[in-house]
Design brief:
The protein is of the alpha+beta class. It is built from eleven helices and 15 strands. The chain has four domains: 69 residues, no CATH class; 110 residues, no CATH class; 38 residues, no CATH class; 149 residues, Trna Endonuclease, Chain: A, domain 1. It is globular and about 85 Å long. The chain has a five-stranded mixed beta sheet, with helices on both faces. Strands 1-6-5-10 form a four-stranded mixed beta sheet. The two termini are 34 Å apart. 33% of the residues lie in helices and 22% in strands.
Amino acid sequence: MMFQKEVELVEYQPVMVSEDSLSYELGEYIWKNYSNQVTIDFPSPKTDGRWRLQNLGWVGYIPVSNEFMIYLKPKVPLENIFRMLEYAYNLKSIHFFSDQVQCDTLQDFFNILAGILARRILNRGRKGFYKAYRDEYERLPYICGRIDLNQQIKTPWSVKFSCHYQECTQNIADNQILLWTLYVIKSSGLCVEETLHLINRAFRSLRKAVDLRPFTPQQCYKRSYNRLNLDYQPLHNLCWFFLEHCGPQFAMGKQAMIPFMVNMAFLYELFVDQWLKVHLPEGLELREQERVDIDESSMLYFIVDLVIYEKDRDKAIYVLDTKYKVSDSISPSDFSQVTTYALAKNCQEAILIYPGEINFQSGGLIQDIRVRSISFPLEGDIEKAGRSFLKDLLGVEPEMGKTSVSGEDSSDIEVRKIE
């Protein structure tokens, strides 16, 4: 789909556009519907009679109307966003770079991921989609399974039997998630012709035996798998990514395109979490999103991003808080927040993690708590940056590539050097 006007907004960099580039009606629509993604200042003497827009840390597309598009551009190289996804959504088994994929634009990025999902679904379809038994209840002219005697007694004149039985079917949630995600992708308007052809083929192969019904991103995550459907796990993780970041709930009227927006703060937090799980030395354990109740009623509480424990003693030794911000120094609110977390966990090390260098020197101890800032940059080689980050965190040179996430297939999380 072609747009007459497009504004490109790099993360956190304000852009000024002329007053006639955007109508007040569309400006009001952006302000009302996308204020979490983009700040917009209306033309005034303060803005020299121009529109001022700023990307608040998102990557993607916002189709404001059929003629006007906002392109939210990353400050991180797209190649590194792939690497972040590999960790954040447990997609390392997909081998994004095995074919030396060239990705220059966000549309390339979207199409590569969509194409991978479609090809994997088609490959699974050739082997046969996963089937499972599903409970059914039906009135039949013959006995199948177990007769519902209570219902049968109530209608003795009926010549049909009330039966409870199980049916082996492909029409189950595992396959319905794939079908719904393909539907969302092909409705996005971001697919090029070649990718759309693959998506439609995969969609038709599933639609023959699977009902189309909506799913939330959360329903794709932490599902149960066995030896017969283990290959569905990376597929569902890709579905989780697509459903998390694009959806018709943002569409306006009969608009032919829906937004695709990646929250980089959320992705950065997930990435740091999963990267640490893979690379922490033996004897240490990472726990995420820990709830700390402040009063006995449990009505007042807060959530700690990440806590590193010593396994043997079950002792919290590091409290970590990720901050996807562009700043030269630590804000008082960030400092207070991580210090409070450390106090609550009876921990002496409070760490703020930023994607850039922060000018901060720890000014002594607060009740035996040392607050530090550590950088995990995203611009260069992520694995090299991670090794430096872990060395700064632990104070020693870490041994890399020997640990794995507990409870997951080690083949899916093996640490590999990506050329």
